[in-house]
Structures are given as C-alpha cells and as structure tokens.
Design a protein that fits this description.
alpha/beta, Rossmann fold, N-(1-d-carboxylethyl)-l-norvaline Dehydrogenase, domain 2, 12 helices
Length: 295
C-alpha cells in the first residue's frame, strides 16, 4: 500500500514526535487533538525541535520549510482522517478512550486505511474489537523522543492481516526506523522488560543501595545502556510506568509487577518526571539533578 497521507491522533509528546517524523518522511501529515491548547503545544514542540536542529547545524532552514509544508493541524478528527492511508493513535493509556477513538476511526477513516495504536501495554485485540475491520489494526509502539529513537515495535494480534503487517513494516522503514514484530502479549517485549528494570532500580534506590545517579551510571557504563533506568523512567513518565506495571500485574496475576511504593508516592505527589520538571530527578535546570525523595 502506498502511503500518501498520515493522520496522527493526539498531539502530546509522542503524537507530536510521530507527526514530525511522518512530515519529514515526505507524507502529508495531519495532526489532530481534541484540545486546542494541546494541539498548539504539539505544533510548537515540533517547530522548536526543527529550530534546535538548525541551530546545531544538523538540519537546514530549507529542510524545515519543506517539512512544514507537509504538516497540518486539525481540530476536527473527521477532516483529519478523511484521506488518510495510515492513522496512528497516540492518546493516553486509557482503554475506554482508545476504544472510543477506534470506534470513531472505523466510521471516519477510508476503508483501506491502516489503523495503528501507539499503546505501550494495552491489548491490541481489545482495541481492534472496537472496529469492524480488526485485520487493519496493528500496534505501532514508538519510543521517546520519536525523532531520535530508531526502534518501532509492531504488535500483531490474531486477526491482523499479513498485508497490514507488511504495510506497517514498510512505513517504519520509510520513517527511518528498525521494526521488530511481537505478539499481542501484555507488555509486549520492550515495555515488559523496561518497566521491570525501572521498578527494580526504584526498589534499589529506596533501599539505599546507591544514589540515583550511581545506579544509572552502573547501567550506562556497565551494560552500555544509552540512559540509566531511573532517568529513563523520568523521561517516559512515572505515571506511565506505574500504569504499565499495574496492567501487567493484573494481566499476569503476578505481584512481581506491583509498582514499588516509592513510585506510587512520586506519582501521588505529582512528580511525574521530566514533563513536570521533577520526578526521581529534578529537571528544572534541563539536566538530571539529584533531589530529596518522598519518605
């Protein structure tokens, strides 16, 4: 399937990043958000990313102008998806919200459209069941920051067609991503491993094994991780990590996935990570700085 137009549903951190990459791939890109202020922030985030690239000499003004021509914001989902060959949903990890959106997409998107969900942990089969075309639905799990991270985790459920898988793999390649294909198992491959490592790192921090920076340094230098598990948890969002753990705990009926009490305290205090300026680390300076943790 040739992709000419992509619609991205949700203009938050992930949605804006996905829309940016799609526009850079040469596709007509429609970014939709139900909240005008969210849509404006998403467009501003993309613009700021491009300006930063120009300032660092990584991209040119001409490239930004070309990419900007591909990117369009929409406050009406029906208009955003009307001509889409590929729709990528990137709204919060709330099952009811995703089911509602996919029910709308089933009604509004062209019959041939590939319907992707950027969920990091929810059942693709359950989301697909909200449509009359489950064979067109696939998980397309991107990683933050989307324009930089090279992995795209594709998640197939039992009814996903081979044509949909092939189209999603081709789309990922066109976006400059390396794709992996996994089954529709809770947590897939990446989230299941990532949250388990992050939760254990938080346990070690709470137990006083080492400081946050030393725990992170151990994984960066000892295991060649590009970022330590605590800094990564702050980047992803501690509320997102907590919700994935709870979903895994319920799905597998296994308390090994229970969020550590320190994680729950941080979320309850509104310390969600980099997006709120403070989480495990204090990010107010733009860099990760150690800070006091809740008792």
């Amino acid at each position: 399937m040739e992709i000419r137009c992509v619609a991205v549903i949700g203009a938050g951190t992930m949605g804006a990043g996905i829309a940016q990459v799609c526009a850079q791939s040469g596709w007509k890109t429609h970014l939709f958000d139900a909240f005008p202020e969210g849509l404006e922030r998403g467009m501003q985030r993309i613009d700021a990313f491009w300006d930063k690239g120009i300032a660092r000499g990584k991209t040119t003004t001409e490239q930004k102008e070309e990419w900007s021509k591909n990117l369009h914001s929409f406050a009406d989902m029906a208009l955003a998806v009307a001509e889409a060959d590929l729709v990528i949903e990137a709204v919060p990890e709330i099952p009811e919200l995703k089911h509602s959106i996919f029910s709308e997409l089933d009604r509004l998107a062209p019959p041939h459209a590939l319907l992707g969900t950027n969920t990091s942990s929810l059942s693709i089969a359950d989301i697909a069941a909200a449509t009359s075309r489950p064979e067109n639905v696939i998980g397309m799990h991107f990683f933050n920051p989307v324009p930089i991270m090279k992995l795209l985790e594709l998640v197939r459920h039992d009814l996903t067609s081979e044509a949909t898988i092939t189209a999603a793999q081709s789309a990922g390649t066109a976006m400059g991503k390396t794709t992996i294909l996994v089954k529709d198992i809770p947590g897939f491959a990446t989230s299941r491993l990532g949250v388990a490592l992050g939760n254990e790192a938080i346990r070690m921090l709470s137990d006083g094994v080492a400081s946050a920076k030393d725990i992170d340094t151990a994984m960066v230098l000892g295991y060649k991780h590009p970022m330590g598990p605590l800094a990564l948890s702050d980047l992803v969002g501690l509320d997102v990590r907590r919700d994935i753990l709870k979903n895994l705990q319920t799905s597998f009926n296994d308390d090994a996935y229970e969020p550590h009490p320190l994680l729950e305290k941080l979320v309850a205090a509104g310390r969600l990570g980099k997006k709120t300026g403070i989480g495990i680390y204090d990010w107010s300076s733009g860099e990760a700085e150690e800070t006091e943790l809740p008792e």
